[in-house]
Design goal:
It contains 10 helices and no strands. It is mainly α and 183 residues long. The chain is globular. The two termini are 34 Å apart.
Length: 183
């Protein structure tokens, strides 16, 4: 997971540095054909690998074929994630979706704090209630929706009083090696 997470972080940094997030119109227009095609090809690859190849064929762990298939699988994860961002940029060009998705901006501005809180709560819930064995997929989805809904409200309330999320502020202080104002 660490290489994939590091890759996504570096890609995000590159997007910011190239100002791609400020000019989504050109990014959207350049990807009108390529992005949907890539999305469906890599999604199809993942589904075929998971639901057809792995159950029906014995592939030796660590073999050249296994390494190739799994490397492509993880690359597909990254590409599909980038496609999701492109689809989101397409939606945000329309005023209805721009207004409807605005509450997500608060969660985005406190993303690190929310990610750590989600991970902690998820671990706590799954361990405390033996969720790995007792909760259905539908129950897990409802828990995720509930946690995220509360995080949207808490993020908005927090940002009404403070400039950054708590962990985002700590990260900035560590990055600049000085105590920065949070308000």
């Amino acid at each position: 997971m660490i290489p994939a997470a590091l890759t996504m972080m570096l890609l995000g940094g590159a997007f910011v540095k190239k100002s791609m997030l400020n000019n989504t119109d050109s990014v959207v227009s350049r990807g009108k054909v390529m992005v949907p095609v890539a999305f469906f090809l890599f999604l199809a690859y993942r589904l075929v690998l998971l639901y057809y190849v792995q159950p029906n064929f014995e592939i030796e762990q660590g073999s050249t074929l296994s390494v190739f298939l799994m490397t492509l699988y993880y690359a597909a994860d990254l590409i599909i994630s980038l496609c999701y961002l492109w689809f989101l940029a397409v939606l945000l060009q329309r005023s209805f979706w721009h207004k409807a998705l605005r509450p997500l901006a608060y969660v985005g501005r406190t993303a690190l704090s929310n990610y750590i809180l989600q991970s902690f709560l998820g671990y706590l819930i799954m361990r405390t209630f033996n969720g790995y064995d007792s909760l259905s997929i539908a129950e897990c989805v409802l828990i995720v929706i509930a946690i995220f809904s509360v995080q949207m409200i808490l993020s908005k309330l927090w940002l009404a009083r403070f400039k950054y999320g708590p962990l985002e502020w700590l990260w900035r202080c560590i990055s600049y090696w000085k105590l920065l104002p949070i308000r």
